[in-house]
Write a structure and sequence with these properties.
By secondary structure, this protein is mainly α. It contains 41 helices and 8 strands. Helix 22 (431-444) runs antiparallel to helix 23 (452-466).
Length: 786
């Protein structure tokens, strides 16, 4: 500050430089020191030991004296309420290492100080010189962003110096510790992260605590983040800072500090912080008990650093800590993907969990839900199906008295168990069970719970998958949460392909690149089939099917994924590949397996077999969307048989049983254009509402073809390859040692097989059917050259 004062005096000899005491009346000090009111005054204040009232007094003093500017050295940044939009003053936080300014910056600084009336405050580090670090460019940039800035240097040296200084001040019992920021920082040593509710007692009220969090995130010691459990802003110690706290402590001192923090977070009910501190303390057995009580909440709400601690703790084993190991494997799946090592560990977890017993209905529900979930994660289909069935039986047979007598702990057990069962049901292609569990999860939940919105989205998604919110005859679209993965089906009901693709774009991008998830993988493949034939390739479709088959111990893929994959393969005519996957689920008898075989039979011109499969499917489902899809496939089979009267009769019956225009329009997307056209022609005049649905559906893009990829000769394949490389007819004829006329004969045959009329169409269709072989040096992976 002395160097800064000398500089300003050199730049403007008329500038008065005065030094003020932070604890006294700044206005009075300014008035007493100013001999010439028209000249500017720079007041330098060392304010390391101040309470919040200092900033209000400084603001009032400067607002009343526009000729004064202040440079303040402080640990603390002033509250935003002091320098808000209603005042002409502002403030900027800078770090001392920023004091390295050139001649141009000095000119900018001089002009800024002369015109802005800004208050500049800077942190004074214990290892630093104590000079106010002000660079004009950086100040201008900060002011343009609203005033409040942040330190740009966060090296471990700076952090360590600041921490040592704060600890030294806190230990002396000075006014620093009696200030709001001092009290908060002194207590913050006990917590790896904290929100306003955890520092409320230290900061003197929730409003002040919220303001304090906003001020602390400017320190280089912290990162700003959102707390997963509360949704509030929180300060998170940077890894370097958190480690620096331990640098000068004995193990006993560190444990004592963390234990005090543990008591605070347990009292506040903060599960993620509790888990992290338990692992920091090395109390892994207690962490396992916590994971057993709150697995779902810890899995969904844990932040990145807590997840990393679970992943990296070497003392966690499947035998002693099965819940922590299962949680660790789920965290690994999110970041690294599936591996055989994870499968072995999940199987070990399942063995350990099945050894456990439970007494009482609530504990049994919790146990069964957890084991079913673990079996699904381990790929043990039969065990997962058995425990899922048991969980649904326990839930549906519960009497009202059970609900009435439930305490908070019991309630959370049911919600957690239902979520785990819901996830398992979606993996096992059991939509009816998923719906039951989602309804129970929502019924037992509370609106005050952080995860209740998540529960509501799960219920909304499974209802939309079933079509329950699209049954209204008025055709009005239900409102969807943006995180509802079944939102894509709602968009398809409106013919909005773009919105449908956007809703599942992430799932489509991840097909074949992650551990299989039956429900989103099925959504992604179905959307590719219905809306984006050009994006559907055999490799992309089969990669998802292979992942699904590899996930389960019986090597059978998800039937929902197989049905969606069969539809997608039919869009590109990959009939041989589709048959291979249809045969893989030949012994499966759920509704999706029957729909898979029915769809393929129609594609293979075997409508009688399709009708048998559809009849079996309708006996297995009470979900409107699936039932209407099955009914319309059956009607298409009658059209394929030439039974037009029967087709019309069945269409009228389907409409009378469920006059749902949205679901009918969706189901009609599963038919190729030719089948849709024939069916449209037989809609009776006596059903104007149904005719309206068909008229709207006629505008929808149809990608399914029920065709087969062309079988090209070796010569045609070679010609196609040269076409894709941009060769002219003359060049191709010379390379093949044939005349141009003979080449035209080959091209005519090739175009006919592809259904094309010219070279561009041939290349587009060949690319879609994946008939163009990649040649050496091709960096476009089969893209058509322009």
């Amino acid at each position: 500050m002395l160097q800064g004062a000398e500089y300003f005096q050199r730049q403007d000899p008329t500038t008065q430089v005065m030094w003020a005491e932070a604890g006294a009346d700044i206005g009075a000090q300014l008035d007493a020191a100013s001999t010439e009111p028209e000249s500017s005054v720079l007041v330098c204040i060392d304010a390391r030991d101040v309470q919040d009232g200092f900033w209000e007094g400084l603001s009032e003093a400067l607002n009343a004296r526009p000729w004064a500017t202040a440079v303040v050295a402080s640990y603390d940044a002033p509250p935003e309420t002091v320098f808000d939009q209603n005042t002409s003053l502002t403030h900027v936080i800078m770090h001392e290492q920023d004091l390295a300014f050139d001649a141009i910056e000095l000119q900018e600084l001089s002009a800024l100080l002369a015109t802005s009336g800004a208050v500049f405050d800077t942190l004074v580090g214990g290892q630093e010189r104590g000079c106010a670090a002000l660079i004009g460019k950086r100040i201008t940039r900060m002011l343009s962003r609203g005033g409040q800035g942040a330190w740009t240097h966060t090296s471990p040296t700076v952090e360590a110096g600041l921490l040592n200084m704060i600890r030294a001040e806190s230990a002396t019992g000075s006014t620093f510790r009696r200030s709001h920021i001092g009290a908060v920082l002194s207590s913050a040593f006990e917590l790896p992260s904290f929100t306003a509710d955890l520092i409320d007692c230290a900061a003197g009220g929730r409003r002040q605590a919220d303001a304090m969090i906003s001020r602390l995130v400017a320190l280089p010691l912290f990162d700003a983040d959102e707390d997963g459990e509360t949704g509030d802003e929180q300060c998170v110690w940077t890894p370097a800072s958190w480690e620096s706290l331990k640098a000068n402590e004995s193990r006993e001192e560190t444990q004592g500090r963390l234990n005090r923090g543990l008591i605070r977070v347990q009292k506040a009910g903060r599960l993620v912080l509790e888990l992290r501190i338990l692992l920091e303390l090395g109390w892994v057995d207690k962490a396992e008990e916590l994971a057993k009580q709150a697995y779902r909440r810890l899995l969904l709400l844990s932040d990145t650093r807590t997840a990393q601690m679970v992943q990296q703790d070497p003392s966690i084993t499947a035998q002693r800590h099965p819940m922590l190991m299962m949680m660790r494997n789920q965290f690994v799946l999110r970041t690294e993907g599936f591996s055989p090592r994870l499968r072995v560990q999940d199987q070990e977890v399942l063995v350990e969990l099945r050894r456990e017993t439970a007494t009482g209905w609530f504990n049994e529900v919790s146990r069964v839900g957890c084991i079913g979930y673990a079996a699904s994660a381990a790929g043990n289909r039969k065990t997962a199906e058995r425990y899922l069935h048991s969980l649904v039986e326990l839930i549906t047979e519960a009497e009202l008295a059970v609900h009435a007598n439930a305490n908070e702990t019991d309630r959370l057990k049911i919600v957690d168990a239902c979520f785990l069962g819901y996830w398992s049901a979606l993996q096992l292609d059991r939509p009816e069970e998923a719906l039951v569990l989602a309804e129970t999860m929502s019924a037992w939940g509370k609106a005050t719970d952080r995860l209740h919105q998540f529960d509501s989205v799960c219920l909304e998604a499974v209802m939309d998958n079933a079509g329950l919110r699209s049954l209204e005859s008025d055709g009005v679209a239900p409102i969807c949460d943006p995180f509802n993965q079944a939102h894509s089906f709602i968009a398809l009901e409106d013919g909005n392909d773009g919105a449908a693709l956007q809703a599942v774009q992430r799932f489509i991008a991840e097909l074949g690149t992650h551990n299989t998830r039956s429900s989103p993988d099925g959504f992604g493949l179905m959307l590719l089939a219905i809306t984006s034939r050009d994006a559907a390739t055999v490799d992309r479709i089969e990669s998802a099917l292979i992942d699904s088959a590899d996930f389960w111990d019986d090597h059978r893929p998800s039937t929902f994924v197989t049905w969606a994959g069969t539809l997608a393969l039919s869009a590109i005519g990959a009939k041989v590949e589709a048959l291979k996957w249809v045969n893989r689920i030949s012994d499966s008898n759920d509704v999706y397996a029957h729909l898979t075989r029915a769809s393929y039979a129609l594609w293979d011109s075997r409508p009688d077999e399709a009708l048998n499969e559809i009849s079996a499917a309708l006996k297995l489902t009470n979900q409107p969307r699936t039932a209407i899809c099955a009914q319309l496939l059956g009607i298409a089979a009658h059209v394929q048989l030439g039974n037009h009267d029967q087709a019309q009769l069945r269409l009228e019956e389907a409409w009378r049983s469920r006059p749902a225009p949205r679901l009918f329009r969706f189901a009609l997307r599963l038919l190729p254009q030719t089948a849709f056209g024939k069916l449209h022609a037989h809609v009776p005049e006596s059903h104007p509402a149904l005719r309206t649905v068909f008229s709207a559906a006629a505008t929808d893009h149809r990608t399914l073809t029920w065709a087969e990829r062309p079988n090209l000769t070796p010569t045609e394949r070679e010609i196609l390859k040269m076409l894709s490389q941009g060769a002219s007819n003359t060049a191709i004829a010379n390379a093949r040692y044939i005349t141009v006329g003979t080449l035209r004969t080959h091209l005519k045959s090739l175009y006919k097989k592809l259904g094309a009329t010219n070279r561009a169409e041939a290349l587009t269709l060949a690319s879609r059917f994946e008939l163009i072989e990649f040649w050496e040096g091709d960096t476009h992976r089969g893209e058509i050259p322009r």
